[in-house]
Design goal:
280 residues, mainly alpha, 50% helix, binds zinc ion
Length: 280
């Protein structure tokens, strides 16, 4: 366990993620519908920003976040049992992620655990995953529930929702190119991160994806988790736990992931699409 006294609140990185479509080689018979969930094409906005630029920027900011956590003795060492658990779950999910985005094959996937009371987790573009200890401890997540959170976050990355956001921003701001500063703003990592920390770790603004992107991440995430052998019905218990935790002040994750009956109902409605994958 991370020592309690060493846990410090870290600013919340904005949550983001990525993807590129091309459900590659999922079926050799073109006439057969693809088994599992159906989502549309990626937003045209994502094409406005080079994927490698997004991923490089994400990688740098992830490294920065880890370095800051390490300096505060809040980065879990490789032998930490909860980190080993997260990595074991990721190892099952990642092979099923590759068909959603051909770039994912070359990503340097990473999974880290940060000591923080925040209920939060994210997967940055390029496969940089982090969980905050608060989401595991406070919600007492089962492996199936962890897989639902991870699947959801990885789905944002695979579907390149952050890149889409950046593309939309570029249009809005008339930017011909996306510079590091804009990337930092979109990703929610304050370029003045050090100052922010010095001021007492104030929470940074959180990145909100559109409702459509959230629904898509729920769907794709459920499918990833189910194919990896995790029970997709955990999506329901996960959101019930989130809602319960909400009563004591909204968890970070909920600030960008509105909970409630609609979300749970949507997950229940989609269960028949992914339960067969799990049972296989
Ligand atoms: Zn989300």
């Amino acid at each position: 366990m991370l020592k309690r006294e060493t846990l410090k609140l870290l600013p919340q990185p904005r949550r983001w993620l990525v993807c590129a479509l091309l459900p590659l080689a999922l079926h050799t018979l073109p006439a057969l519908a693809r088994e599992g969930v159906e989502v549309g094409k990626n937003s045209a906005f994502s094409k406005l920003v080079p994927a490698d630029e997004v991923e490089n920027s994400a990688g740098q900011q992830y490294s920065q976040l880890l370095a800051q956590a390490r300096a505060k003795h809040a980065l879990a060492p490789p032998e930490h049992p909860q980190l080993q658990r997260l990595r074991a779950i990721a190892r099952k999910i990642i092979p099923h992620a590759l068909s959603w985005n051909p770039r994912a094959r070359d990503w340097q996937w990473e999974v880290n655990l940060i000591g923080s009371s925040q209920i939060n987790a994210f997967c940055m573009p390029g496969g940089k995953i982090a969980f905050y200890s608060g989401i595991l401890d406070k919600l007492q997540l089962s492996d199936d529930e962890v897989a639902m959170v991870m699947g959801h976050e990885v789905a944002h990355a695979l579907r390149e929702h952050a890149r889409e956001r950046m593309g939309k921003s570029a249009v809005t701001h008339g930017a011909a190119r996306i510079g590091g500063v804009l990337a930092a703003g979109i990703f929610g990592i304050d370029p003045r991160l050090t100052d922010t920390l010095a001021r007492g770790g104030a929470n940074l603004l959180t990145l909100e994806f559109s409702r459509e992107d959230e629904s898509e991440a729920d769907l794709v995430g459920m499918e990833l988790a189910a194919r990896a052998g995790f029970d997709p019905r955990a999506g329901v218990t996960l959101w019930q736990k989130m809602s319960a935790a909400n009563k004591g002040g909204p968890p970070q994750w909920l600030s960008t992931h509105p909970s409630g009956k609609t979300r749970i109902a949507d997950i229940e409605k989609n269960l028949p699409k992914v339960l067969p994958l799990y049972r296989q």
